[in-house]
Amino acid sequence: MASTSITEPAVTVAPAVHDDDLATPSADAQRAHEDRQRRRESLLRIVVPAVVVGALLLLWEWTVRANNIPHYILPAPSLILKTLFDNWDTLSSALWFTVRLTLLALAAAIVGGVLLAIAFALFKWVEIGLFPIAVILQVTPIIAIAPLILIYVSSTTAALLLCAWIVAFFPILSNTVVGLKSADSNLRDLFQLYKASPWQTFRYLLAPSALPYFMAGLKIAGGLSLIGAVVAEFTAGTAGKETGLASRILESSFRTEIPMMFAALLLVSLLGIVIFIVFAALSRLVLGHWHESEMRRER
């Protein structure tokens, strides 16, 4: 009986394909897409407001020219810019005075607010005794307190600084106190279990917990310190070289120099915008890599 041989067909074994090899191109494409999306979003955040503001300025310019509105009623944006450049020597010195007053008041508010917030968080009796006074200073309008401060404080600059400090102080204090008290109770128990010192508890638990709240208060206090400086100077009615932008606005209103008023007001607004942008960027830098409030979310 003849033997029959069966030849099995050759089977080609394909090389093993790992999940990482399949995921790598997709992951790279996803990251590239996210980068493009972030760049597009960042560009839109700049372009869209710039277009809107530019359109409003063009409409303002056209309205003034088309209706022949006198400059002492409503100056055109082009005239405001011309006035700003023509009077830059006067306005720049006033701008520097306002910047210095605002930053000094904000620095004093940060130091005083943070130290008092730590005392509130560590010693209950300090909070019970002093927090009502801080609330009274906050709820009383600064324009009502400023005349008394100007009477009792001999130096006008010191009086203006004190007024601006009062306005900027409470957001720092309140937000920092809330942040210090918001630390996880389970983590507090863990620190006590491992017999952490008060400094270790503050350094590794309370301070990181309070930092997001402090940054939020800082963004609020930055604008309020500028408002306090301007309002205090309005109330003081000071005049001379060592004065700020509020005095330039008052002087211009007395002389009916409306373009000069708008030029000084433009500098005040730009200063407030710069303060907000700086502190928003600082908050993103400090919190962006670990806190949800500033981390970029995938969309």
Briefly, what is this?
By secondary structure, this protein is mainly alpha-helical. It has helices at residues 19-66, 77-86, 88-122, 124-139, 142-152, 156-181, 185-193, 198-236, 245-254, 258-287.
Notable characteristics:
299 residues; disordered N terminus; mainly alpha; MetI-like fold; 10 helices; 0% strand; 2 domains
What does this 3D model show about the protein?
- By secondary structure, this protein is mainly α.
- The chain folds into two domains: 38-69; 77-287, Orthogonal Bundle (MetI-like fold).
- Helices cover 78% and strands 0% of the residues.
- It contains ten helices and no strands.
- Helix 6 (156-181) runs antiparallel to helix 8.
- Residues 1-14 and 19-23 have low confidence and may be disordered.
